[in-house]
Amino acid sequence: LILANEIGGAAAARRLAALLGHYPDAELHIFVDSAALVEALRSAWQERADLPPLGLLVEFGAGRAGARSVDAAEAILEAILAVETPTFRLTGIAAYEGAAATADAEETMRRIDALMAVTSDFLPKLRARIGDERPLLVTAGGSVFFDLVIARLSAAVAADPGCRLVLRSGAIFFHDHGIYERGLAGLDARGGFRIGGETVSAAAAFRPALRVWAEVLSRPEPRLAISGMGMRDVAMDQGLPRPLALYRNGAYLADLVGADVFRLNDQHAFVALADGSDVAVGDVIEYGISHPCTCLDRHAILYGLDPDHSVTTAYLTSFG
Hints:
- The protein is 29% helix and 28% strand.
- It has 320 residues and is an alpha/beta fold.
- α1 crosses α2 and α4 runs parallel beside α5.
- The chain folds into two domains: 2-169, Alanine racemase (TIM Barrel), CATH 3.20.20; 211-316, D-serine dehydratase-like domain (Lyase, Ornithine Decarboxylase, Chain A, domain 1, Beta Barrel).
- The strands form four sheets. The chain has a seven-stranded antiparallel β-sheet with strand order 12-11-15-9-10-14-13, with no helix packed on it. It has a six-stranded parallel β-sheet with strand order 1-2-3-4-5-6.
- The protein has helices spanning 10-20, 35-46, 70-81, 105-130, 146-158, 179-189, 202-205, 293-296; strands at 2-3, 28-32, 54-60, 88-95, 136-140, 163-167, 193-195, 198-200, 211-221, 224-227, 242-248, 251-255, 260-264, 269-272, 284-288, 301-305, 311-316.
- β16 (301-305) and β17 (311-316) form a beta hairpin.
């Protein structure tokens, strides 16, 4: 497991230790970007003998957490090495490039390139400091720019036989009709997705797997439908949901062409309809979402569907 963030201070470190005390066989690696966090974790691990080993990943960052310079990373590295034990030790380098993105595409590329450069340049320095024997992880790669991570880090990782590159493209398992749809179109524009030596379209190869369905509650105006889905039910931080299709009496009726969600409140979605839309109270609208990360945590249960949209599985979700 890779805990891809800093956790806080001493109290958070004790909570993590208490949790891991129930899983002595776990393999956990955690981001660290300060000597203070190293000390908090060291203290928690020193207090108990029932914990699994903890791997520490020095994080470089741009736009979120992480060391902003080689000097800062070297200070974190030395803080770790000064307190290492067989169950508390350095295991690699981490980064998250997604937070480096801005509204300016060229500036985004410059910031990601700089982050990947400092990450890859640090690997041989770290290796020289600890020797050749220890296996190391280098981990980066969110769901939008993972192609750049591979392009920028592969050479440095390949030059170190004891190093492994791990991508963390979590949201891509669900994909969406918004931010990641646009992101994969951007990946295609940068050269596409390579599988087995052949370039394929990332935008065409990935399909959104997450939907939200909501019943039409009211048709108060000719071009307005209000459905029972709101900010408590669906992500809206990276774009509003997209109406996809209409169902009536449990059966597919039509695609909702020209429909658009223009506002959400707590428990309602306001849908602008095209002239003459055949949408009635009691119909069910299928919505695509933007940003799975902030949609999943609104639901205690996710339902798996077969190709006919019959529910076949229920998945319980769990969030701290």
